[in-house]
Amino acid sequence: MSFSLIQLSFVVFGYLFFLFAAAYIVEQGWIPKRWVHHPAVYVLSLGVYASAWAFYGSVSMADQYGYGFLAYYMGISGAFILSPILLKPILHITRTYQLSSLADLFAFRYRSRLAGVMVTLFTLAVALPLLTLQIAAVAESMYLLNADLPTTTLAFGFCITMVIFAILFGARHVSPREKHEGLVFALAFESLFKLIAITILGITALFFVFDGSGDMESWLATNQEQLISRHTNLQEGPWRTLLLVFFAAAVVAPHMFHVTFTENINPKALRPASWGLPLFLLLMSLSVPPILWAGVYLELEVPPEFYALGIGMALESELLVIMAFAGGLAAASGVIIVTTLATAAMFLNHIVLPSYKPGPKQDFYQWLLWVRRFLIGAILLGAYVFYRLIGADLEITLLGILAFVAAMQFLPGVLGVLYWPTANRWGLITGLSIGIIVWLYTLLLPLSQLTLGWDYSIPLPATDMDNWHIAAMGSFAVNLGLFVIVSLTTTQKDSEKTAAEACSVDTMSRPSRKPLIASNSNDVIVSLSKPLGRYVAEREVHQALADLNLPSYEDRPYALRRLRTRLEANLSGLMGPTVAHDIITRNLPFQANAELSEDIYQIEQRIEGFHDRLSGLAGELDNLRRYHRQTLERLPIGVCSLSDDGEVLMWNTAMEELTAITPGDVTGSRLTAAAEPWGSMLNDFLLDNATHQHKKRIEQQGRPHWYNLHKSIIKASGGQPGGIVILVEDQTETQMLEEELMHSERLASIGRLAAGVAHEIGNPITGIDCLAQSMRYETDNPEILEMADQIQEQTKRVTRIVQSLMNFSHSGHQTTEHLPVNITTCIDEAIGLLRLSSQGRDIEYVNDCDSQWQVVGDSQRLVQVFINLLGNARDASPDFSTIRITGSVDPYQATVHVVDQGSGIPEDKLDHIFDPFFTTKEVGKGTGLGLALVYSIIEEHYGHISIESPVPAHILEDQQQDTSLPSNESVGTCVTLRLPKVQDKLLEDKSE
Amino acid sequence: MYDYRVALLLVVGLYIFSPVIIDWWLAPNGAWYHPFAFWFLLIAVYIWVESKRGPDEF
To answer: In chain B, whose CA is at the least distance from the CA of A418?
Structure first.
């Protein structure tokens, strides 16, 4: 059976275009995000592990090692079952610090540019055999179907095709930190496709080649000897080696690292992946034995690795052959794309960018994109060169072993990242270098000499397919041993210690609170503009602020420290941790002379993140910490904890309620940055020597509030940082009650006096009035009658005074309602009542208040206030003058000015104007109780009254905008009332 | 916090004894699909154990 080149090209391009279309529709958002982010998609995308090795190589492995071929599947399954202690911590590190490859991880953890460079270069030792394996598998399978062209030409054509598709899949975005959702979806589709393909092949072998499982079992029983003679029994050594090699592949193989960590969209998907991938691999491997035995049964003439194709050819089923070919193509293309992208990203971050960066004026993002495209092409062409030199003549399984054993050399470094904080870069570099050299000397060179017949003219160990595992384990053991010995005998840098703490599972980084030289986020942009250019710097700073949910402008020291860390992580995603660390260290330095102290707030936040992992004594201590934290948080007194340099570390719930400032807004900043009036008040108290301040009065929402302040200084001792704790007690209610009580007492004593005086005076006055009345009937003498009238007039006056006294004495006993009141209506009502009086008919009253203004109070009492104020104004005003009532509102209170054009009040009398019995009117015209009563009513309304004379200039100016008042008017009196405005909630309650 | 150390110890133990376990597992007496059935059973047990863990448990 043979296919034309056009047919095969149609299958290759058709499949790849279909795959690209799947990725494209995801990137265009045509598929719902919940599907794309579904854990099943992630699990299937991890199936990229099942490369051409799984499709072709496994059959060959099964032929050679029997069930030993399962090591390929079981090794990685073990790694995924251990994902909570192996993969999850790495995923956390890579996501937090935006690390996109193993080289990034090592360069970050070991703080070594050399480590990043070495891992990148040694990744080539993994990537080239791995890519070659895929290229060889596809080229040779094509050659089996069409022998017109040699495999090398077919391989070259396939390489060029894959360059185009790798760029389309992975180099259309600027930054690797933007996840390739389309690529992940395409990989998931590809895994599903190859699973279906291999399952159909298995079913065909089982039911169409054999007559079901029973028939195959009986064939196996009769051909046991033949099968055993075909394969060598898998010894302990190779089995253990294969298991370890494929276990390590979950983390250290570039394509697996890329899909598992870099392209992870949903971290929670790692959990279903821990059993989902083993299940997927179980299904993939289930068809391998039937395919192998069907191939043996049919006595196929093709090598065992291509039995999948051979079965279809033997059964003369074109559909089966094309499906097997497409399945192998799917398995190979996924690995090629992902491995190339991952390796290109490593080269960019660790080889290209540290050597050359474009100038600030060049479009940095575009430059990155083109370099990445170039690298993808170079790596794939490099793989083709490797294929031509070595790969074309090596077996697929041998290529796989070379790649995965080279990858295993990274395993000690990975374990050091997670579980050995004292491991250092010298240990890593030494172990890795020697491990790779041993791999080269004991595996690559002897196997290429053995297989290709090359002569290196140096003594090489006699490594072959029977003892390769000794060389593999030898290289790993040398690597691991040197890693441990050198790490133990050399010291870490401080920066390496910090990075080790950040990565280690068992320890936690302890961030310091060193302040930055840059004082705000704009300074950060300016500093970063030097290496990155203005556009990139602005974009990165705004992106980092958005990532942290911070506003676009920040000047809080804590926020700037977090911004610096985030910027380093984001730049690490863009250009690798080494370059990012250099840029940040050089351009965003800390203040040199700043004292080092730990950031307790951030440490606590991190401990909170570890809560679920703490068990035993640590867990109990953490529970105790949380209990104390909750105690402080829930205290009904405001608690504000400050570091020794005045940075806010804690701001409890009561503090938030008192100040209306959330902890998120103030934590990490200086006290002065808190909203007024709190910033000034607390900072003044902080600087004051007194440890207590009682009843500090501040205005909040237009009303006075009183607070008691206490502070305690925590002295630094035993390595623990010092600080200051401020307690804030709300005394407003107590103060209001005290003032009310004092006022009531004062009014009550005056009232009792007034009532007594009124009572004592009332009786004789009534007698005098009666006597004067009698006099009128006793005489016709006009002089005496006139005298009697005078006496009666005077007694009426005394009676009015007595009545006023009685009113005042009773005023304190009235209950004031607190309901929404329209202030304009009250003023109009008072004006209407005053107009009924014969006095001051020539006075004009102008009410400029808005008819919508509502205050909280008692309408009758407020009318009483305005009658008093407007009456006083009228009495003081000349004829034909105007009394103007104006005002304004803010969110919390209404302000009303009653302005007359009268003679004004002398300055020395203003201080006593609200005292009972004090009046500026002529004797007999006023009792001196009106303003005292007004003051009392306004206080009961939680308002404020003040009198200014002459009228202040700004009020005159405001009024002259609306009226024709003469500008030289500088006398008159202005009474200003401030009353609590109705809040929306009160209005809603009222409407309900 | 010490859970992972126990798990690592278990892994090393399983790795050392894996050839013995595998020999028993791949014993040629049973049907050809027995190793896969046993593997599937292990996955099923793992899923059951997983389902007992809290959503945020380490």
So the answer is: B4
B→A interface, C-beta within 8 Å: 1-4, 7-8, 11, 15, 18-19, 22, 26, 31-33, 35-36, 39-40, 43, 46-47, 50, 54-58
Distances (CA, A) of A192 to A41, A42, A45, A196: 10, 12, 9, 6
Distance, first Cα to last Cα, chain B = 9
Question: How do residues A739-793 score in pLDDT, each as one tens digit?
Answer: 777 866 776 677 777 777 777 787 788 888 888 888 888 888 888 888 888 888 8
Write down all domains in chain A, each with its CATH number in brackets: 5-354+367-414 (1.20.1730.10), 512-594 (no CATH), 603-729 (3.30.450.20), 737-811 (1.10.287), 819-991 (3.30.565.10)
Query: What interface predicted TM-score (ipTM) does this complex get?
Result: 0.87
- One-letter-per-residue 3-state SS of A41-78: HHHHHHHHHCCHHHHHHHHHHHHHHHHHHHHHHHHHHH
CB atoms near residue A601 (< 10 Å): 20
Q: How far is CA A74 from CA A248, A419, A747, B41, in A?
A: 11, 23, 92, 14
Nearest to B35 among A67, A274, A618 (CB): A67
Instruction: Calculate the CA B51 to chain-centre distance.
Output: 16
- Asked if A282 and B15 come within 8 Å (Cβ–Cβ), the reply is no
Chain B: nearest CA to A611, how far in angstroms?
A: 9
Nearest to A613 among B7, B31, B58 (CB): B58
Structural tokens at position A281: 């691999």
CB contact under 8 A, A236 and B39: no
Q: Which residues of A touch B13 (CB under 8 A)?
A: none
> What residue has token string 């974009």?
A539
Q: Sign of torsion, CA A194 A198 A204 A209?
A: positive
Domain range list for chain B? 3-52
- In this complex, the residue of A66, A236, A616 whose CB is nearest that of residue B19 is A236
Tally of residues, chain B: 58
Contact residues, chain B, for A275 at CB < 8 Å: 43, 46-47, 50
User: Which two tokens mark A622?
Assistant: 């953490």
A976, A948 contact by CB (below 8 A):
yes
Q: Which residue has the tokens 């090795």?
A: A53
The whole-model pTM stands at 0.66
Residue B43: which H helix or E strand, with range?
helix B34-52
Spatial contact of A332 and A137, defined as CB atoms under 8 Å apart: yes
**A/B interface, count of CB pairs below 8 Å:** 73
Q: Nearest Cα to A722, choosing from A737, A708, A712, A710? A: A712
* Contact between residue A800 and residue A743 where contact means Cβ atoms under 8 Å apart: no
Separation of alpha carbons A119 and A114, rounded Å: 9
Q: Please write the tens of the pLDDT for every residue from A267-296.
A: 888 889 999 999 999 999 999 999 999 998
